[in-house]
Write a structure and sequence with these properties.
alpha+beta; YaeB-like fold; 5-stranded mixed β-sheet; 5 strands
Length: 96
């Protein structure tokens, strides 16, 4: 399934990786591995996660307080945000 990103979602990912790398480089690597495994699951089973709005799904990353918000489209999946679960809930909605 085709995967695309909202430009700000790439910023989210970069900021999160920088944050974990600043604590300990292995934390950044572990987060990246967890994130990539999540993307594999999302691509293989796009409806695996609950819908939180029409067409929008939320994949919670285990072991990390982050979630991936994505839009299911006929032509593929669009990653809208990678956000901390306590960070301004609903702010991803501006990215639809």
């Amino acid at each position: 399934m085709k995967l695309e990103y909202h430009a700000l979602a790439l910023d989210d990912l970069s900021e999160t990786l920088q944050y974990y790398d600043s604590i300990n480089e292995s934390l950044g690597d572990k987060f990246k591995m967890k994130y990539e495994a999540a993307l594999t699951n999302i691509k293989r089973f796009p409806e695996i996660c609950p819908a939180i709005a029409p067409g929008i799904r939320k994949y919670s990353l285990s072991s990390y307080p982050y979630s991936i918000y994505y839009l299911l489209k006929p032509q593929g999946i669009k990653i809208l945000a990678i956000m901390h679960d306590a960070r301004m809930p609903g702010s991803w909605r501006d990215r639809i």
